[in-house]
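For the sake of clarity, the format in which proteins appear in this thesis is described at this point. The fold follows as a row of integers, each naming the local backbone shape at the matching residue. One such record is shown here in full, so that the layout can be seen directly:
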Amino acid sequence: GVILIFDEVVTGFRMAPGGAQEYYGVTADLTCLAKAVAGGLPGAALVGRADLLDAITLTGDAKRDRTRRVADQGTYSGTPLIAAAGVAALEILKTGEVQRELNRLGDRLRAGMNDVLKTRGVVGCVYGTSSIFRIHLGATAQELGIPTYTMDVTRLDRGMGPLGGVLHLAMLLNGVDYSRGASHGWMNGAMSEKDVDMVIDAFDRSIVRLREDKRL
């Protein structure tokens, strides 16, 4: 059969304690983790089925370990500081409280930004899952196929072209930064209701500015 591999570098421990797999109810054979698993320090992990991970395990059989074992390497493998940071972070994240609150704030942020577009009469949408958001101006969510999961990934990857950079500059002028290239961002556990309100207000001001500059 085919081995199912999930890249959960971003979604691992963000969407739920079990990452996107817990969130969507899917179990991968192998999963790549980073960021949160190391408490934000430079560390990563490969986890999954025991029979697959046995391929990289040292057994003490010199011939097998030298000729048949799948070699694995890591720049920071076993670093005490990173291991300690990872343990501390996972102790907090394992309860799911942080993720539930972030998911709630993520829903509120996307809804608020979409309300701005509706109020200002601008065609576009802010979409995403959990505490992740992405902005797309020039097409509705229905036109992009987002509600029905029939979206044209190529079109979404192209983003908004030059308009994306202009919007990012407007948001910076209003005190908010995010990933400029793809017009998306990730919320974090330090954010509050007040921060969500601030981002929504900054988005509103930015949309107004783009309209005044005849960019929309």
About this structure: The longest strand covers residues 132-137.
